[in-house]
Amino acid sequence: MALKFHRTRIVCISDTHNNSPPSAFKLPPGDVLIHAGDLTKQGTHTELRRTLTWIEKADYKVKIVVAGNHDTALDPRFYEQHGTEDHPLDATGSDVLKEFPSITYLNHEAAEIQLLNEDGSETAFKVFGSPYSPANGHWAFGYTEDEAKELWSAVPQDCDFVVTHTPPKYHCDKSRDHGTAGCEALRQALWRTRPLLAICGHVHEGRGVERVVWNTTSSEFEEISTGHWIDPGAGNKKQSLVDLTSRGGSPLNNHSFLTSQEHPGERKPTINVGSSWDWNFSTSVLAERQDPARVQEGETSSITDTHAATHGEKDIATWVEHDLKAPSGRLETKETCIVNAAVMATSWPYESRHGSKYNKPIIINVDLPIKDR
Fold first, then answer.
1. Cβ atoms of 34 and 199 closer than 8 Å
2. Residue 89, pLDDT score
3. Alpha helix segments (H runs only) across 139-285
4. Whole-number Å distance between alpha carbons of 46 and 48
5. Are 127 and 161 in contact (CB under 8 A)?
6. Per-residue DSSP letters for 104-159?
7. Low-confidence winner among 71-80, 100-109, 346-355 (lowest mean pLDDT)
8. To bridge 333 with a disulfide, which of 126, 184, 194, 296 should be the other Cys (CB 3.0-4.6 Å)?
9. For residue 157, what are the β-bridge partners?
10. Are 14 and 68 in contact (CB under 8 A)?
């Protein structure tokens, strides 16, 4: 019997830094709210409570939160290393979280999420969430390059959504000061696990959506192409929407249990010119290298000077065990949608871009399988 699916709306935000709706930005309606970290500016318990309060009151069936490098109250190791001079320790982060039971907080761990829909059907997905980002200064949840591979080996093979504060390297990670500021070990973990969605933040200028086509038949960690999203909500009152449902006409080629009613097989990504979810596909992972005119026309770029890392690596011994699992577990999983949902539009403390201080939340429509009763 063929699987039946229910359209589910995922509202993605990150890097709100004490800002809240409706004054700074508007939260659109949806089923699931995901916050990818940096809830606060200085990481105090007062700031944390204020942010968690409006998240808990938000009208969603499920609210998923990870911390970020600014959220020091939630990182005990930060206090062990730096003391309490900057932020008096009037409570532990876990004590604060207990005050908000409707929020699913993920601290480098996975959870099974169940959804009861309006029509009485039930759907589910597995999500892994982590607050970590590459260490850079006096901030929380940092890790060194030497720690990165072991850290991201914790991402389960069967995750549908991966929520991290840091973006992966070369995807939604262009920084004004640091170039491509994402994590290469995380990118490799996404190649291994190939989730439907990878939601992040941290790099404010990297806000956007990319559709990565993984190479599943060649060397480890290789990519074939990247589709760059054209935001339908840029400069107008429309929503920043990405429709990955079958009804929307552009489902991912991601044959995990929740993405397609078709039989597994090769299917090229759909590019629909003029729709609200246009994609521009290229062999380059660097969006700034695209010709703007060709982006608007929906043409495919022939850029070939991709970064060497996206061509794959053949000799990374510490990842052999995980690489062997990838072909058997995710052989028919070809694409991942990567979302940087940073709400703050400034590369703080720089001036705001596009004359606006805040970005809109990004809405992702996906099909989730209905559970058998």
1. yes
2. 58
3. 145-152, 184-193
4. 5
5. yes
6. EE-SSEEEEEEEE-TTS-EEEEEEEEE--EE--SS-SSEE-HHHHHHHHTTS-TT-
7. 346-355
8. 194
9. none
10. yes
HSE, CB side, 13 Å, CA atoms: give it for residue 285. 24
Report the candidate in 95, 201, 198, 81 with the shortest Cα–Cα distance to residue 139: 81
CA–CA dist 244, 195 (Å, integer): 14
Structure tokens belonging to residue 360: 């809109």
Structure token digits, residue 280 = 């521009």
Q: How far apart are CA 164 and CA 134, in angstroms?
A: 12
pLDDT of residue 315: 34
- Average pLDDT of span 287-303: 32
Tens digits of residue pLDDT in 241-263: 999 998 887 888 876 554 433 43
- CB of 191 within 8 A of CB of 155? no
CB 20 within 8 A of CB 47: no
| Phi (first) and psi of residue 120, to 5 degrees | 90, -10
Q: How far apart are CA 286 and CA 228, in angstroms?
A: 9
Q: Helix, strand, coil proportions of the chain in percent (round to 5)?
A: 20, 25, 55
pLDDT tens-place string over residues 40-88:
998 888 999 999 999 999 999 999 999 999 999 999 888 787 766 665 5
Residue 273 exposure: Cα atoms within 13 Å on the Cβ side? 7
Residue with tokens 């070369």: 170
Alpha helix locations (H) across 29-179?
A: 45-57, 76-82, 93-97, 145-152
103/55 Cα distance (integer angstroms):
8
SS3 11: strand
Query: Phi, psi at residue 78, to the nearest 5°?
Result: -60, -45
